[in-house]
Amino acid sequence: MKVIVIGAGVGGTSAALALQRLGHDVVVYDQMRENKPVGAALSLWSNGVKVLNWLGLGDAVAALGGRMDLMAYYDGHTGEQMCRFSLDPVTTQTGQRPYPVARADLQALLMDAVGPGRIRLGMRLVGVDDDGTTVTATFADGSTDAADLLIGADGARSFTRDYVTADAAARPERTYSGYTNFNGLVPIDERIGPADQWTTYVAEGKRCAVMPVAGDRFYFFVDVPQPAGLPYDRAVDGKAPLEAAFGGWGAPGVRVLLDAIDPAVSLNRVEIWDIDPFHTWVRGRVAILGDAAHNTTPDIGQGACSALEDSFALGIVFATNTLGVEDALLRYQRIRSERAGDLVLRARKRAVETHAFDPAVTQAWYEGLRHEDGTGVIRGIVGNIEGSPVNLGGGILA
């Protein structure tokens, strides 16, 4: 069977690998001209890592991942420690250590694994035609390709999603979450936080955090509640918005981080949007996955993991069902859409809690952190992992 995948991000390449492992002929198209992913890094929680293990990439992913043994919150104004605890229960309960990884490193690993000549860059999808037997993709340069099925992993502004949902009662629309995220990579500096710790400074509904990744680097991400559409030019504005948002904080680690950020080397700005959960992921021989199907805020760190779960489910349905492409894709949709939608809503709820959209809720969260021994946070992290299809119903040991 020939498969076209649109999108060479984490979801598209992992889906390609899952189907290649079954012996299918897979070609991946992406409109980007080189590996320049949006965002500096991502959280691979245990469910995402398990999918990569299943794809045969476990050792390589472990080598890319930072060792994150601890988690701690600090008051952004004073630097006072609010709580600090081990993340080991996540590993022992789920059976797999989580890893923060640089996104470009992971994407390069996945693209290399798909294989030479199987990924074609600079190709923008502009048309899809499904005649019931063959799906034909048309690209902006006028070229076409035909296959037995097409998987759209083409991101939050997915062309494929528009095709799949063309006849739906309500078309999915992106919604601004209320905050903008700045992220990048800096050298590890223990004045910011220990090299094996997820360190987060909080105050005023803003968040300033670092996670360790391979190469003696911290992945930093900071959240600033603000309206959508504010102008920003990295070459001109640089880190001025970060100084405006965090420069008045008294926590010494925040000052060290701000000083370490070099906009010319690593600084991304991303307005955070999501999409209300929807359940039309399939139209005939065409299906969507990843952000195209469940664009989410990063507040529970499950965006990439959810895309990897899609790829796992896609591989399983094509390995175990024999009633045809359309039937297998509908089974994939049934496995994935409800859980993925639930994670979108969990992330949205978490965003409200952490960003002072309701100040009383966020203040109550701050007060709770001062009494947190890790039990509540671990419960939330494991709860997001527990329902993963990769666990086959038995992946959590309390």
Automatic annotation (TrEMBL):
Record-level GO BP terms: purine nucleobase metabolic process; urate catabolic process
Catalytic activity of the protein: urate + NADH + O2 + H(+) = 5-hydroxyisourate + NAD(+) + H2O
Co-factor requirement: FAD
Transport is among the record's keywords: no
Residue ranges annotated for the FAD-binding domain, each copy included: 2-344
UniProt keyword list: FAD, Flavoprotein, Monooxygenase, NAD, Oxidoreductase, Purine metabolism
GO MF term (any one): urate oxidase activity
InterPro entries the record matches: FAD-bd, FAD-dep_Monooxygenase_BioMet, FAD/NAD-bd_sf, HpxO
Family: Belongs to the FAD-dependent urate hydroxylase family.
Classification via NCBIfam families: urate_HpxO
Protein name: FAD-dependent urate hydroxylase
Gene: hpxO
